[in-house]
Amino acid sequence: MIKQPRLTLSEFFEKGDQFYIPQLSIDCVIFGFHEGELKVLLLQWKDSKKWCLPGGFVLKQEHIDDAAVRILQNRTGLNNIYLQQFYTFGDPERARKTHGARKPGDVTGKSWLTERFITVGYWALVEFSKVDPTPDDFSLDCKWWDINKVPSLILDHNAILDKALSSLRIHIYDYPVGKDLLPQKFTMPELQTLYETILGKDLDRRNFQKKMLSMGILERLKERKQGGAHKAPYLYRFDSKKYQLAMKQGLKFGI
Amino acid sequence: MIKQPRLTLSEFFEKGDQFYIPQLSIDCVIFGFHEGELKVLLLQWKDSKKWCLPGGFVLKQEHIDDAAVRILQNRTGLNNIYLQQFYTFGDPERARKTHGARKPGDVTGKSWLTERFITVGYWALVEFSKVDPTPDDFSLDCKWWDINKVPSLILDHNAILDKALSSLRIHIYDYPVGKDLLPQKFTMPELQTLYETILGKDLDRRNFQKKMLSMGILERLKERKQGGAHKAPYLYRFDSKKYQLAMKQGLKFGI
Question: Could you tell me which residues are beta bridge partners of residue B95?
Fold first, then answer.
């Protein structure tokens, strides 16, 4: 990993562009799933109290994908997260003047941070009970928000979140989802709950099962889930090799 | 449209960054379809004779989507093309030193163009018999290349092309395709040829028909295609309203 300079907030406003690519930023939309709930991870700025997506800048010699991972870790404490690039936002009205971080009082003159920024969006989907969000020095708080109760965010971050959600929803038709979100052995209703939670709508049980089995990445086990009041449902697990292959090639639903 | 400065090549190397966003470019992958052939539009640099994707830079106050449209029109003459943003390439090894355009002899010192560039990729799919590619002043030639016979391109343009093709192939499972590529009334075999050409593989006739009809955007007409030796096949057309809706919401193949 490329070494990051240690700058005070004033130094960052004054000369950050000596270390970072100008007019380019990264924003991360981290979706959290847990038993029928979909949430998104937001940071709150210390001074303005405004909420935003965890974001940051790209070092001069850094790959943008590596920057996304570093930024997420620095700002929220989350590491080892697979980040999916989904869209780049390039409206000229995206300007720092509506940002949550105020220019420190001792910084005079124009700062590189008040320029227009193009931002590259990444999303990830994590089991939120398994991670421990921790705010960085700039932030008052770092917490999960219910996807339907997100507050007004800085800049165009609400629009970025909407686009990320659309991208995630399309993605689950194209690529397998669930490996790190479900127990190793799971029932078809558990898988359906995951899809329904991401899609935000109910799905037909029989169609869903047919579609899932046709993807060819599920393996039905001989053992059944015990303990319920109803007939014990079958347990499934993902076929690791086929899952990995589908991650690369897409599911394609067989036309 | 924002006014573009008129600069000589030397001026462009020396002070282009007064007008354009530094370290950010746009590259367009234009796929051409015509009766079972898939091609890609490439430009050839005048001085180095190297081939590349049509690309360019973003004006300080310009939306990146507008920049893509302007760049495509300036460099190839193609206009009114719907461009789809697909990926942003941010490897630090993407540097202008391996670019096709040489720095003019009268430009001394470092140029903004020799910095590392992050590039935003856009693709489009056009009926190539309907457009007339025209090279710009920097280019010797602008022509269609068979997708399987693309030469070695500058920088990482071959990798950008591959990624665009993957994106296009995933896209046709998620969104409707064909409106400007097929006659207004077409047969199922004509639609299948379009899909097979884009996917680069043969598809099963019955599965294909079933899948296409299940998307709910096709209307079967009463009239049949005349003139063939075989039984006259049904004609179809796209249901405009449903096609437009599916362009926005995705096809989702009904789970």
Answer: B116
